[in-house]
Design brief:
Number of strands: 2
Shape: elongated
Helix content: 55-70%
Largest sheet: 2 strands, antiparallel
Order of helices and strands: HEEHHH
Radius of gyration: 17 Å
Strand content: 5-15%
Number of domains: 2
Number of helices: 4
Strand order of the largest sheet: 1-2
């Protein structure tokens, strides 16, 4: 995942309805044209980026969720929606 993809993820964590056009390859040297939603400062975006899980953390969480869903299925227990999505999606 490149830095601009992380920028977009961070923006959507702040405002899931935001629409923007980003030109550049890093947060530091990009320009953001806000189409829908109030502008978000680069400092706020950078702070939110620091909170996002790393790709490795996301992969581990996904594997843990799958393991939890499998264990519950075997035990005949109900799944959470998030666990069910690991099976269906």
């Amino acid at each position: 995942m490149n830095e601009i993809e992380l920028v977009v993820k961070a923006i959507w964590k702040i405002n899931e309805n935001a629409q923007m056009r980003i030109v550049g390859e890093t947060l530091e040297n990009c320009t953001i044209e806000w189409i829908v939603g109030n502008p978000i400062s680069k400092a706020d975006i950078e702070a939110k980026m620091a909170e996002l899980p790393t790709p490795e953390e996301e992969a581990t969480a996904r594997e843990n969720l799958k393991a939890s869903a499998k264990a519950k299925l075997i035990a005949g227990e109900p799944l959470t929606e998030e666990e069910a999505n690991t099976i269906v999606l």
